[in-house]
Amino acid sequence: MMMEGKNKKIALIILLFLGLPAIFPVCFSAANQPQNKKKSAPPTAANSYGSSVFRVQGNVYPLGYYSVSLNIGRPPKLFELDIDSGSDLTWVQCDAPCNGCTKPADQLYKPNKNLVHCVDQLCAAVHSTASQRCSAPDEQCDYEVKYADHGSSLGVLVHDLFPLRFTNGSVLGPRLAFGCGYDQKFSGSISPPSTAGVLGLGNGKASILSQLHALGLTRNVVGHCLSGQGGGFLFFGDGFIPSSGIVWTPMLPGSVGRHYTSGPAELFINGKSATVKGFNVIFDSGSSYTYLSSQAYKAIINLVSTDLKGKQLKIAAEDQSLPICWKGTKAFKTLNDVKDYFKPLVLSFTKTKNAKLQLPPEAYLIISKHGNVCLGILNGAEAGLGDLNVIGDISLQDKMVIYDNEKQQIGWSPANCDRLPNVDRDYNEGLLQPHAANFGILADQCPASYTI
């Protein structure tokens, strides 16, 4: 979901505002955890950075989003959050007079004298317009997030503890700021997601990633691996980046809003130029599908339609799953049934040698519940995006995608997203075994105590 419109001294101010992290004792069974050769000190601003990995749930179709579950508060309470690299503020549905809340009251976040005040630095980070400015420093910090699909969240900024387990075995509870949303609006006829809120992964100062980095807990790097079969994983920090095989392209300086933008790019279909050149793209894990400007979209439709002439596919106008669907002589069961009808697409980033984002048919098609094949590339102008080009989840599946805010670059590589990283071996040997199932979050039953 993209938002409409995005020195040591600053980091120190944020650090003082958030306070020193609360330390959680490790309460995982030693038999289930990777064995470290030597005990590691918890990551702090004064020593090494850590990494944390989280299991992802969800799919592109029919669910329409990917999510992670995070514990927040004391005692910890679990919240399922839609992962969104197209916005930076994390928010959860608030236990207050609430409009547009989809969760029952016992699954809402209840603030407890933990409001962020206007004087705090992070309040300014969520106030993008003059109309949102505070009239007094001791006022509560209100926020409003507007998304490009015309959905929104309105609420108040709070701060609370986020129990996180790092790859060196330490478990910390940093005090982080996020939104407590009491007025949510959802667009279109699609039912709102069942998640409790949004985990903003953008590069603004208000994001959870930026706050963790300001505390010295992680590098300013986030990545995700979304499985085409459903699920996957998400990570903070640079501990899971393979030593080779990643294609990197620079982020554009002064990117639109707080989005991860790169370019210019040229579009190819089956190795032939689609005559669409010089456009920038936004990588957005909060968007289920890929959206292209009218020019690029029309080029795709013309070339795909031309290529399908004479083949046993006909327009399925009765299928409203997506704007364009095709039916065969019998219902399709999987994308393997139709892959031979469609050609691979490629986005070639012209300022970086050999930087190509490969999009095989499964990276832009779905099989609908009616057994038809539908195009998961949509006209951005019709969705209110203007000339923006958005690479959504459908085209990011089965790839590790990395947003490196320190080196200002975006990277990707084919990956098996069905297996969680192996913490002991990944630094040198790639993503091999699913040994990290408990990493990232504390289990609900974990009895945590706190040291401030």
From TrEMBL:
It comes from Quillaja saponaria (Soap bark tree). Keywords: Aspartyl protease, Hydrolase, Protease, Repeat, Signal. It comes from the Eukaryota. Belongs to the peptidase A1 family. GO terms for biological process: proteolysis. This is Aspartic proteinase Asp1. Residues 66-413 form the Peptidase A1 domain. InterPro entries: Aspartic_peptidase_A1, Aspartic_peptidase_AS, PEPTIDASE_A1, Peptidase_aspartic_dom_sf, TAXi_C, TAXi_N. The active site is at D84, D284. One of its GO terms (molecular function) is aspartic-type endopeptidase activity. The keyword Protease applies. The keyword Signal applies.
